[in-house]
Design goal:
247 residues, alpha/beta, Metallo-beta-lactamase, Chain A, 7 helices, 28% strand, globular
Length: 247
């Protein structure tokens, strides 16, 4: 029998902290391993607020290169350096990620990207629609519709005999049907309740397309104030900071 996997929303918020929520950060735990999906700028604070020791996290998977999804990585790396981390850290995401992380480190803390870490840091650029092994995960990046001057992905993560898909940020694309097919959990952004804007999803579109999604369970996240104010009208499971799901 396979071991259980837990999925915890360290941060379930949008870029602007709507509802007082931390930015996107999802913690997977299984087989004594810990993996993050996205690491927004507030994620180090959010992890520590939950009592989750960052030094126990070996892999960070990134959907796209906006600050509320990858901007916590410079803080994560520098905190690990000061904390005398020795275990390797693998950071996997879209092409261009390594350069963007280095640039962010230099903006936040000049010369920090030139420091020799006490621990190995490996960057892995995910190809589009090709499953690759990242540590003990099998990760597939599916291109979605979101602009960040680099490819944006929905990530399908096979981890400890479970499959978790996260849409990242995107307007509707049928790619989501493929990315989430038969997933144990599909985490899907729902930025607005019904308003249609470029590069983001709204709840009404998701509800309309829900019968086509072949995932076993779906949870909505990355919600704006508009969406949070209308949760009583939502017929779907929604995330909140700290929510833990056992799979």
């Amino acid at each position: 029998m396979s071991s259980p996997v837990s999925v915890q929303f360290v941060g379930s918020g949008d870029a602007f902290g709507s509802g007082g929520r931390f930015q996107t950060c999802i913690l997977l735990e299984g087989n004594t391993e810990r993996v993050l999906i996205d690491c927004g700028a507030s994620s180090l604070v959010a992890l520590k607020a939950l009592g989750a020791n960052p030094s126990t996290i070996g892999t960070i998977l990134v959907t796209h290169l906006h600050g509320d999804h990858f901007g916590g990585i410079p803080f994560f790396i520098i905190d690990a350096q000061f904390g005398k981390r020795t275990e390797p850290l693998i950071i996997a995401g879209p092409p261009g990620m390594r350069a963007r992380v280095r640039e962010a480190m230099e903006v936040f803390f000049p010369k920090s990207s030139e420091v020799q870490q006490h621990f190995p840091v490996e960057f892995v650029e995910l190809p589009a629609e090709v499953p690759i092994r990242v540590c003990n995960c099998r990760v597939t990046g599916f291109p979605v519709l979101h602009f960040s001057r680099a490819p944006a992905y929905a990530l399908r993560v096979e981890f400890a005999d479970r499959t978790i898909t996260y849409s990242g940020d995107t307007e509707w694309t049928d790619t989501l049907l493929t990315a989430s097919a038969n997933a144990d959990l599909f985490i899907c952004e729902a930025y607005f309740y019904e308003k249609k804007i470029k590069f983001h999803l709204d709840y009404q579109t998701i509800a309309k397309r829900r019968p086509e999604l072949a995932c076993k369970r779906m949870v909505l996240t990355h919600m704006s104030t508009d969406m949070l104010n209308r949760l009583e009208e939502v017929n779907a499971e929604v995330a909140y900071d700290g929510l833990k799901i056992e799979l």
